[in-house]
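Bench notes, bay 3.
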Amino acid sequence: MTTVSIAKSAPARIAKGKLGVYFAWGAFSKRDGQTFTDSHGDQIPDDEMIAGALSLAKSAQLGHEHDGTITGSVPLVMPMTEDVQAALELTSPHAGLVVGFTPTAEVAKSIDESLAAGEPWQMSIEGLALAETVAKSAAPGDVAKAEHKRTLRNLTINKIDLVRAAAHGAGTAIAIAKRADVAKAGMKCPDCGAAMAEDATTCPDCKLAVKPVAKRAPAMTGATNGHQHLIDDAECPDGFTSWERAPGAEYGHSHPWVRAADGSITVGQTDGHTHAISTGDATMADDITKSLQADLAKARATLGAVLALPAEQLTYAKRLDEAGVIAYLAKSATERAEAAKPVHVAKSGEVFYSSDDARLVSMAKAHDAMAEQVELAKAAAATAEIAKAAAALPNVKGADLIAKAIHGGALTADERKSALADLAAVNASIALITQPIGKGGAPGPSSALEAYDAGLAAFAKAAGKSPDHVADEFLGTPEGARLYAAYADEARPARA
């Protein structure tokens, strides 16, 4: 069995009730006590009709001629099958689906005018079903007007439409047969069952332009994105293709189509693509070679288009899946640029865009704010620790810088120079305090310090900078290290 889109009319007149509600048969499982087979060759069993009624009750939409417009509602849906009639102690020559609908004022006026003029309307169900192919039915209870080709299972009715019988033919909203110009001898109207005279063009009772079925005329679309669609009813002026799913796609889709006056068919766009009509032998998209070639060509074209994007848009496109990339490339340059603008760049480097889940963006921002608070807390703790260490060095000039360096803090060049000078002063003070009693005396001018200062001045002059800016560099040279070591040795007090 295969899933097919359905659009079928119930050949019954519409009656107007009170309170502006209209009543009609929406579909038949039996008519005049006989199993009903429409001109598609389809039958809908009683139990499937009940399932269809439940689905229609959920949507409750009234459309018009299957053109996509909504022209009212369907507040009353009742499966009037044989078992339901028996349970309710009702009798009727028909079985199927009964609906009560309320059209818009404009459509109601049109219906009333048509009914007054004797022009009939029909109700047409629209939805999906599994088509179970069967051999030609020879059961004596079957309606002889049509060959039973398929039984529809798992019926889902999404909408019910008002259709003019003259536009869509008898028995079905979408005719799939070429019809002769006039009736054949002994033919009965497929809609109401009335006898038709030979060469008649309309039914004498229901006035429908009913013509005998000559042959079926389906058509096949060409392959696009690895799939094709069947058009069951190429002789109709418009309709919808079969419901198909492209490889890798999550959902399936159908396409609207129209037939021009010259007989050519144009398929409308759905899911960002359309199809051409196959004019030769139709082959399904499971022709592996053709399908792979088409997919490869499409992938190459997509990859080329992605690589040609600006850097910021390329970064955005890399995070999309295949369907997302195709949809992104279909946007205008302005829309692509806008979509590729980051709304937040996390401290981890992850980039978020407006298309991302707002909750994820909010969580990333909250995480970054928390990280900033942690960094501030760590810095405050380090500052407190340095202050505590500096307090342990009372009366020592530059104790804060010395403590900062001990705790791994980064010092600037000026801070390092100042700290070294303070350390040298501390060392000299300690040396004076620890001199043996009775030895030495007050220190005199340091010739080694003068030599160090002279060397630093010469180094600074050669570099074209002030001595303060090159003190660290000079200490890093062999000459600077030697002069500083001589100064340290001279400042160290002699021991007995």
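Next record in the batch:
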Amino acid sequence: MGYEVHITRGEDWAESGTAPITLADWVAYVKADPEMRLDDFAEATTPSGETIRIDSPGIAVWVGYSAHDEGGNMAWFSWFRDHVSVKNPDEEILGKMCRIAKALNAKVQGDEGELYDSEG
């Protein structure tokens, strides 16, 4: 399943609708950041060769990620219901999330409510 960390303007990420990051806010940010690419989908191939694809407005990839590999390792950022989430981010991705949060006047918060350093 995985653990998610969120960029939110809400008091708690689960209440992001009270102070939303709109899809328009997110798309504007992604288009202005040369390290980000808006794809509106995420796609991966399983070890058995099956391709899994998720289509959703606001899915973006951080192409500046040091482990970025078009063959499979991608830092996907997913906008959904007024916040942006990343599944199982490492320290480098958390740093990028904090920089994005600062630009969006938001914060970075884990599934269990823990906050991450906004200085990134």
